[in-house]
Design goal:
The complex is a heterodimer.
Chain A: H1 3-20, E1 44-45, E2 52-53, E3 58-60, E4 72-78, E5 86-87, E6 93-94, E7 100-109, E8 112-124, E9 127-135, E10 142-145, E11 149-156, E12 162-169, H2 172-179, E13 180-181, E14 184-185, H3 192-195, E15 198-201, E16 204-207, H4 208-214, H5 240-251, H6 275-278, H7 307-313, H8 331-342
Antiparallel strand pairs in A: 1-2, 3-4, 4-7, 5-6, 7-8, 8-9, 9-10, 11-12, 13-14, 15-16
Chain B: E1 5-7, E2 12-14, E3 20-22, E4 26-28, H1 41-53, E5 59-61, E6 65-68, E7 71-76, E8 82-84, E9 91-94, E10 100-108, E11 112-120, E12 125-130, E13 133-143, E14 155-160, E15 163-168, E16 171-173, E17 178-183, E18 186-191, E19 194-196, E20 200-205, E21 208-213, E22 216-218, E23 222-227, E24 238-243, E25 246-248, E26 269-274, E27 277-282, E28 285-289, E29 292-297, E30 317-322, E31 325-328, H2 338-346, E32 352-356, E33 367-370, E34 378-380, H3 389-395
Parallel strand pairs in B: 5-8, 6-9, 7-10, 8-11, 9-11, 10-12, 11-13, 12-14, 13-15, 13-16, 14-17, 15-18, 16-19, 17-20, 18-21, 19-22, 20-23, 21-24, 22-25, 23-26, 24-27, 25-28, 26-29, 27-30, 28-31, 29-32, 30-33, 32-34
Antiparallel strand pairs in B: 1-4, 2-3
The chains are: A alpha+beta, B mainly beta.
């Protein structure tokens, strides 16, 4: 019933994109070695830093995203002509050869938007290739980087102040630390439960899964079946525990899972974990100074003596969690997890 | 350690297998007054890039020099790579100014050989190798240069989840947890290593088919530990042989941050076995300990919570300790940690040679202690029903005769390298 409306909406969107932008050519993907410049892909038309998506480049958002030093993220997906993803049994998306996930990291500073880096995941020969492009100082384009690097940023905080950091742009191997699943690189965000909400497109609002389906970027969407939905970590109307678990799953569970890079710790964080796997009354194994002098990962009722909270607060590379991708404490995230632990009953003794 | 080296020129040759070769001309500067460090920044960048771009089979040579890094180095997914330096204390990779990454060098790749270099002052673990099949550490040093601080990284040499591990001729010092730590790994040989001034010198944890021999552990808080910890994917270890090691003077202050199990280790511990099965300890010299030569305890004795859902066994079983030398120090045992305080409370001012908690799963023979010298101070704490020191004083049994036995031998599957 809604479908015709959505179709017309998206056709309108596409028409707009095709006719309103500088003719910079269609999106193209490299054969062999990756392009050195981001603009060579033609993901964006006109002035690159404006991030105006080219035909076939669709923006998306996630319900509960990973915290990355308060950076804003503009995400897009692109697939080759005639290709589409398939929703798998577990709610993941199976992407076709040539699909690209595009994530731009930037800050809205007083002087205007400052793009730091653009990360791509490119589906090649059945695997994902991670690529990182670092934006030029003049913001005209971005260049491929293997080693990553540092960028000095005065990060604007929610309270209106700023915090100076050396923002870390990951190197090639670091991408895998978070994106590893069973030894392979996998996307983290684009799954049914993370995408399943309205997005405000240029022409209006639509459910992201339905929009991808209408655009034939998903071949088998069934709105009656594909109803998985994660909790928005920052929605105060949702139950505290669900918000906390959604936050932890995205910010910790990508590594702390049975086939993730932190599996050796035995701390496996997802909404389905039992209390001990979640860290409740679990003593640390190889935390070193990450223990903060505390005995339990989660000490029920006591966020102030829970290792989990200590490591979320720390900015010491040898103690902090996540181990990479964060230089500033996520005050609002720490508050959420602290509130959740404070609300727990019981004792480890 | 300070080096006064100045690299005059470096040549970078990129050959077929990303064979990286630095021809470095080194000039010694005089350092009569203050020691100075010449950091080879260009070399650091080359090492970083060489690791990131390494292809299978690459040999990455690190010349003599002092190379500083602000972030972790890593090698991922390429097999058969060799990282070779000019020697321990000669090719130094320093992480003193590290601002990113939880370890100095992180490796997730198979058939890797690490030789002849030093990693120092990493903010977290020095060298972590995860999930590798085939990893050789040969003459590799890990250390922290600012003394025994709780802010030092946890582990020096740290293979975890690996199969086929050889650690030989290495030196590990000043780790705030364990100098050489093998966790959840299988088919491991550790030999001819030197671990000193760590909290734990050498630690074998939840690992299977491990041989440790000809190692020297001295001046640590505890010399050599064999632990099974709860809550881990590899729930239990077994088939561990520890022989011909020298474990002496491990009386160092415990500088581990509170929280981890090693933080409870009393200074003056020679060896400690927790909740492990199929362990044979023989022909070792365990000497000059001020608290205890060998402890054998179950997980219950740690009074820490655990779950058995994953198959974790909290008891020790089939542990044979024979033909070792135990020589305690004449000293007051540790009073800084609970276990030390307990021993001091039970045997005032008297270091013990062998202490067991006496908590067994059933009446079968689980522990044998044979031919470990005369006049041993032995204590079976019989701690199962004890709730305080008063109970322990009544329950403790000094008679070792019951444990004068033999246990079935077992074979240790060697690494496939």
């Amino acid at each position: 019933m809604m479908l015709p409306f959505r179709n017309s909406l998206l056709i309108g969107l596409v028409t707009l994109l095709v006719y309103s932008c500088q003719p910079t050519g269609q999106v193209s993907l490299y054969e062999g070695e990756p392009f050195n410049r981001l603009s060579d892909y033609h993901f964006f038309t006109g002035r690159q830093s404006a991030l105006n998506p080219n035909t076939g480049v669709i923006p998306y958002d996630l319900i509960t995203p990973l915290f990355s030093d308060y950076a804003e993220k503009a995400r897009f997906v692109w697939m080759p002509q005639g290709q589409s993803a398939e929703i798998l049994e577990n709610g993941d998306l199976g992407f076709p050869e040539g699909a690209v996930l595009i994530k731009n990291f930037f800050y809205n500073l007083e002087a205007g938007r400052q793009l730091i880096e653009t990360r791509l995941l490119v589906r090649e020969a059945g695997d994902w290739t991670p690529l990182t492009y670092i934006w030029d100082e003049d913001q005209r384009d971005a260049s491929l980087s293997i080693t990553g690097g540092f960028a000095a940023v005065d990060v604007p905080l929610p309270d209106g102040t700023t915090h100076a950091i050396q923002y870390v742009i990951p190197n090639k191997n670091q991408c895998k630390t978070c994106h590893e699943s069973g030894g392979k690189i996998e996307p983290i965000g684009p799954k049914v439960k993370h995408l399943n909400r309205e997005y405000t497109y240029v022409e209006g609002s639509a459910n992201q899964l339905a929009a991808w389906s209408d655009y034939q970027y998903i071949s088998n969407y069934d709105q009656d079946n594909h109803t998985a939905l994660t909790t928005a970590w920052d929605d105060p109307s949702e139950p505290l525990q669900e918000r906390a678990l959604a936050y932890l799953e995205v910010n910790c569970g990508t590594c702390h899972k049975a086939d993730g890079s932190a599996y050796v710790s035995g701390l496996h964080i997802s909404a389905e974990s039992d209390p001990y796997q979640l860290g409740i009354c679990k003593t640390p194994v190889s935390a070193g100074k990450g223990s903060g002098g505390f005995r339990y990962d989660i000490n029920p009722g006591h966020p102030e003596s829970s290792i989990l909270v200590y490591r979320m607060k720390s900015d010491d590379p040898g103690a902090m969690m996540p181990e990479i991708g964060r230089k500033i404490m996520h005050t609002e995230g720490v508050q959420l997890i602290s509130d959740w632990i404070a609300s727990m009953e019981g004792s480890c003794e | 350690m300070y080096l006064s080296l100045s690299t005059l020129s470096c040549r970078f040759i990129n050959m077929r297998f990303y064979f990286i070769y630095f021809s470095a001309c080194l000039l010694f500067l005089s350092c009569a007054d203050a020691p100075s460090v010449s950091v080879d920044e260009e070399g650091s960048e080359k090492i970083l890039l060489a690791l990131l771009e390494a292809d299978s089979g690459a040999v990455i040579e690190i010349p003599e020099g002092f190379f500083a890094f602000k972030r972790s180095l890593s090698l991922d997914g390429v097999s058969g790579v060799t990282i070779k330096g000019a020697g321990m204390g000669k090719s130094i990779l320093s992480f003193d100014n590290q601002i990113d990454g939880a370890e100095g060098l992180l490796i997730k790749a198979d058939q890797i050989t690490l030789e002849d270099f030093t990693i120092q002052d990493s903010k977290g673990d020095a060298i972590k190798v995860q999930d590798a099949e085939g990893i050789v550490f040969r003459r590799v040093e890990t250390t922290w240069t600012h003394g025994a601080n709780e802010t030092n990284g946890g582990y020096g040499i740290y293979p975890v989840g690996c199969t086929s591990v050889l650690i030989e001729g290495c030196e590990a010092s000043y780790a705030a947890d364990a100098g050489i730590y093998v966790g959840q790994s299988n088919q491991v040989v550790m030999r001819d290593n030197y671990a000193h001034h760590n909290v734990a010198g050498i630690e074998i944890e939840n690992s299977r088919n491990v041989e440790a021999y000809n190692n020297l552990a001295e001046e640590n808080t505890g010399g050599l530990l064999i632990f099974d910890m709860p809550g881990l994917p590899q729930a239990n270890g077994y088939n561990v042989k520890v022989y011909d090691n020298t474990v002496r003077s491990n009386n160092h202050k415990n500088f581990a941050p509170e929280g981890g199990v090693v933080s409870t280790l009393p200074p003056g511990t020679g060896m400690l076995i927790i909740a492990h099965r199929d362990v044979e300890v023989y022909n070792n010299e365990v000497t000059d300990y001020k608290t205890l030569g060998l402890g054998v305890i179950s997980w219950y004795f740690t009074e820490r919570p655990f779950e058995t859902d994953n198959g974790f066994d909290p008891y020790y079983t089939n542990v044979s300790v024979h033909d070792n030398t135990f020589e305690r120090r004449r000293a007051i045992p540790d009073i800084t940690k609970e276990f030390g305080q307990m021993l001091n409370g039970l045997f005032i001012g008297k270091p013990q040679d062998i202490v067991i908690d006496g908590i067994f799963e059933n009446a079968d023979v689980h522990l044998c202690l044979k031919n470990n010298g005369e006049d041993l101070r032995f204590a079976n704490l019989n701690a199962e029903t004890a709730s305080d020191l008063g109970d322990l004083k009544k329950l403790v049994d000094r008679n070792m005769d019951r444990f004068n036995c033999d246990l079935p031998s077992f074979d240790v599957t060697p690494p496939a390298l």
